[in-house]
Structures are given as structure tokens and as C-alpha cells.
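Let us work through a complete example step by step.
Step 1: write down the sequence.
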Amino acid sequence: MPYAIYRHEKIKTAGALAASANHMTRAVPTPNADPRRAQLNRVFIGSDDPAADAAALIPALDAVDDAGKKRRRSNSVIAIEVLLTASPEWWADATAEQQQDWLDRSTAWLVQEYGRENIAHLRLHGDERTPHLTGYVVPLDPDSGHLNARRWIGGAARCRQQQTDYAAAVAPLGLSRGIEGSTATHERVRRHYAQISAPVAALEIEVPPRVLLNPDKWADEQVAAIGRQAAPSFARARTAESDRTAKKAAEATAEKERRKRERTEKALVQQKATADRMRALPLPDVLDALGFQQDKAEPDRWKADGFNITLAQGPKLGKWFDHIAQHGRGGAIDLVQHTTGADFKGALSWLADRFGDGATAADLTARMRAEAVRQVKEAKTEREPFTAPSPAPEHWPGVRKYLVEDRALPAPYIDKLHGQGDCYADARRNAVFICRDAEGRAVGAELKGTIQRSDGSRFSGMTPGSAKDAGGFRIGSIAKAAVIYLVESAIDAISLAKLRATAGEKGFTIISTAGTTPNPRTWLAGIADKVKRVCAFDNDPVGDKAADGLRRHRFERLRPTGKDWNDDLRAARAAEGAGGGTKAVMDALRRPDASPPPETTPEVDDSPSPS
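Step 2: predict the structure and record it as C-alpha cells.
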């Protein structure tokens, strides 16, 4: 019985991608390909340069999302090489119509499985005995924009399901799936070679009767009978040559891998010695070479665009922690991998080049620091201007339902913000919250996904080009405010606004800083000295630490009762539903670490306004 065949292979480096592309384009000798049939090769998706097609979709090593998280880890799978075909005997008997049907069904399944936007290249290799589709999928997660191969090929069970699904897609062509989870494939291969070398059975030819009433009919019947007897031998003959060629190719590959392994083992010995030296480098020197700025008030803290790193002291000397990424490790190699996005070899090469034998560390770090500062300034200058996401009115009812029902945000607030253009839905069903500076200009947009992922989470981030240090989503007017509250998200801003209004407070403005790293100089530029300042970040260690940093700018601390203000709002709604009212939550708003609302404040409506 002919089988449907689907397999994939992970590609993690640009070198591996280039080597694969050379084979795919026949730029290197391919033993099992017939140059005389090269005209049968066809490109369905992409160009004549498969590696360039994939590279165009792969995020750069330093690419980050709106939350400052890297879109590509040092060990990310940058592409998935896929292959789809059928057993050789099926190709030997398939008609032109059946072959075209197989192409259509296989391509449609691949697009449905991975998404057309992720398929960088797809071509047909018709110059081999067994034609097949092959190409590259760049595994960009549609929810986060990060490389995430695990979403499609994570785990053996997922891979088995893909093979089952592909077999179902081409089943109408007489193709079936192999026995799932068994070793039947290897047994079939050995049996197949045995059959190839087996002698051809003698044909049984019937002796004609002495009297033939219909000679033509009898002859046709005998030809058909002989064809049925000889069919297995014909099938073996059609596939024998490709099998022998595949065996030679496998032997050549094994020898190549053996030589490569020997070279790798030798290189590892030398690499380990270098790695041990580089791993022990002083972290302040490494951060200086990377262009980080040391905090004068906190010498153990180093900052750069998108990073906020603290170095450990005492017994944990050599450890570091990035407060923005909430990630930490130890040693110079891990630090360079984290900050540059390089893999292990790339980080080791970077360190060896700057701190290797014969290099003067002080001279190198000063030179690299100056260069890094220059590059950062150029990057900021060349940053693309902010462009707000296009509204998708067809998705607004679903986004509004999520905000009002799932997050318990007051419908009048949401509807007013929507009418002002400060809250709407985009094409990915994200809730979009427009961020504005002190003059009311749009400078960015917070995004909150409404589609739940498999792990129960939802996407959060900012639109590319957003300038977090220029302004944020806000409720109320900065110019008229008696109290300014800083919170970590737009949803928290709306939640706290409702809670404060319910508590009877007026004359307040609430600003989302989209995280816990506001720039005090920028954020305080439009706030008068007499205005009361409150840091209302989340009730967790990160929020507390950020609030401590703002105390020197006269910010008081106010914590929600739950994790964040939306938790408190939902708790208040639940209490109202149970007949308990919102007194407990309102009492929490006046705890000792937060001063009560001012007694005399300007009048404002119990509804949000961004200006």
C-alpha cells in the first residue's frame, strides 16, 4: 500500500540554512538528482533564492517587541525545513491528473497547518525518482511576533498528529498513514530491499484451447493476466534505481558527518579553554564594552536601551539580573548572549575579539563604549515614526465584550473612549489603547490580546514605533489634575479610575506607563509641583522596587488589594453582586501607605477623558 510521507527538520543557524538552500537549489552536487530532468523543478512560493526568502521573515538578533522582549532567542529555531511526498510506487503509477491533485492537496494542507504568511519558500523537486515538495517555514507566532517553533512542532505527539493530518489530506488519492508509533517503517525498508533482490517469479501462461470461439477476447484476457502477475516485478524495477541511489547518498552523508564530528571534537577542546577564560571576565568591563551606562546612585545597576541589569555582590559575585526581561544568569558569556541575541559561539567570539590574549581591556572597553553609544544614538534617530494600528470595526463587538464582561470595565467608560478614538479593535482582535503626550499628541499604543493562548495567557505589548518615554494612555487632564496616579497598564488605568470615582474622589488623572520603567524627567515635565503624585503600580516586588525609585521624585505609594487594580475592580463587582457593596475595596484605597483623596478638588465627570 502506498504511503503519504511528511517530515520536517529544525534549522537554528544561518549556516545551516545556507547549506540546506544550496542542496535545494542544486548549487552543490546532488547524487540522487538527474540534471536532465532539472526542468521539472518548479517554485510555487518564493524566489530562486530560498535562503533569502527565509531571511526576509526571520527577526534580527536585536529585534524586540513592544514590551522590550527579544523576538528571537539565541537558540531559536529560525526555520523549519519541510518535505512532503508519497511512496515511490505511487509515483510510478500516478497519472498526470493525480500528481497535480497531490500537489494541490499537499500545498493546501501546508498553508492550513503553518499559515501562508509563515511559508517563506516552497518548490517541487521533479528531478529525482521520487518527486517531492520541499521548502522553509519561518515559525513566527501570530500572537506575539516571536519565533516559536514549539507552537507547531513541539513534542513527539504533535509531530505524529501532523503526519496523521497530512495523510488524511491526501487519502482520496489512495495514500495512507504508516502505523503510528511503531517500528514498522524500518521493517518495511529491510523487507523492501529483500524484495528488490528476490528472483522474478515465472509467469504462468495458459495454453490456448484447441477451439477458440473469440480469439481476440482470449488474447486480451491473457495479456491482462500476465500484467497482473508481472506487476510486482515492474514496481520493484521502477523503484530499485532510486533506492540504490538513496543508499549511496546515505553512505556519503554518514562519512561526511563522521569527519565533521572529528573536527568538532578537536575544536571543542580549544573552545572550552577559551570559554573558561571569557566566562570569568569582570562583568562591569563587559557591560561597559556593550555600551551600558552605570547608574551613579546605584553602582551595581547598569542600563541601556531595553535593558536594566543589576550585578550581584558577595557570594553571588558574577551573577546578573535583567529587571525588564525578568531574567538572570551568571558569567560574561550568558550576559553577552542575553544582551546581543547571539548564540554561544557568537557570544564567545565577541568576547574573545575584545578581551582575548594581548588585548588591553581598558582601551578596548573605552573604544567599544564610544562605538555603542554612537550606534544607540543613530538607532534612536532612525526609529520609524509611530503609526497607530488600523481599526477593524468588525472585531470591536468581541473586543468590547472582553473588556466589559471579562475585565469588568464600565461600559460607559469603554464606549466614551471608543467614541474618542482612544480605544478600538485591530485586525488581530487586540484591544488598542492610544498613548498621548502632555499636549495630547498620539505617541504610541498599548495592545492587549483578547484571544486566549493554549497556556491561558493573552498577548500584551506595544505597537512598533511607540515612544514609551514620551507619554502613555491616560484618564483625565494633566493640566487640571490635583492628583496624578501612575499604573502599569491601560486596563489598570480604567479600573482605578472607576474605583476612585466610586470612592468619591474628583480631580484626578491616571496614566499608564506600560510597565514599571517610566522616565521621571519626561513624565514629570508637564506636571506642576503642587500636584500630588502617587505610584500605584502592581502589588508585587517589581512594583514596590519601581515605586521606591520614584520616592525621590515625591511619589507616594499606593498598592491594590489584589495583584493589580483590575483584580480590585472585579472583586468590587463580585461584592456588589453578592450584596456586600464596595466598602472593603474602598477602605483598602485609604490604607496607611496611601494618603486620602484631597478634600477640595476640581470637578470632573465620572467618566474617562484623555485630555
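Step 3: interpret the result. The chain has three domains: 4-181, 283-382, 393-588.
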